[in-house]
Amino acid sequence: xxPKYRNIFFAVGVLAVVVMLCTFDMSYSDLxxxxxxxxxxxxxxxxxxxxxxxxxxxxxxxxxxxxxxxRLSFWRTYKYTVTGFALNYVTPVGLLGxxxxxxxxxxxxxxxAKAASSVILYAMMHIFSHFCFWAxxxxxxxxxxxxxxGPGMALLLSVFSVFCLLGIYFFMKGYRNGLAMKTLRCxxxxxxxxxxxxxxxxxxxxxxxxxxxxxxxLHAQRKSTFYGALLLExxxxxxxxxxxxxxxxxxxxxxxxxxxVLIQAFTSLFVxxxxxxxxxxxxxxxxxxxxxGGLALSGAYGVYTGLITRLRELVWIAVGLLLMxxxxxxxx
Length: 332
Hints:
Elements: H1 3-22, H2 28-38, H3 41-64, H4 74-90, H5 98-110, H6 112-145, H7 151-177, H8 180-187, H9 194-203, H10 205-221, H11 223-248, H12 257-273, H13 283-294, H14 299-325
Helix pairs in contact: 1-14, 3-4, 3-6, 3-11, 4-5, 4-14, 5-6, 6-7, 6-10, 6-11, 6-12, 7-10, 8-9, 11-12, 11-14, 12-13, 13-14
């Protein structure tokens, strides 16, 4: 990637972090008091995301190197993974910062078509694993609490189940037939940006068709790569549930890992419903409070969990932006 483009991504990330720090809805004295209360569990939570990002990296690395060993090392892929997620955290609507950055960084190593298809495939896999995780959590809730479920919760789970099944169907259909061209056609109907997207489609029609063919080929002919990457993403989500358990250990020792899975599932669903908010500001805290309340835990637990999670995100955003500035060797 040209340095000027990397500088633009870096400036956008830094500006977003500054805005978030200036609009933090808590005094710095209260914030420091809560950090001290976390004790050694705070560094444990921060370090937990090293193996989580390793699983994310491994899933993308499998897709990049499908069909042969590529020129991109695992650790450079790890660097682009962490930085890509950092940009997605601070970008409204998500995927509008991290994915273009990854494509531009990857292009010198594998070419534009392979870079675009692997990034799109991984983004699809990352979102698809959300739906698989939510569907798994619905089954888990039915097993654990289904006998005492009221009519309101039954209706809510029915709506969530339909939503998950529709999402899984949509992505499986996209994997079979390709999704790039259809997605661009949808965006082409939007006002203001539609004309530019149509022009882009006309100029790059052949490249877009090639990306779609590579997406369909991975699912049809190399199922081991497809399901291996999906399993790694799913395991990353399960490992991420430990973060909630570690945070709740600060407040109580009476919380099961299965409950943490349910809290994570409901909160992530709540945040994704408000995908247009950078870092899910407010939505994440509300999701935590509602989910722990639904499991007969104190709502204050949810607020505190949201606070520590927000701190962890800020630290890893800073790490991602720092990684963007180091180790940028040229690749032809």
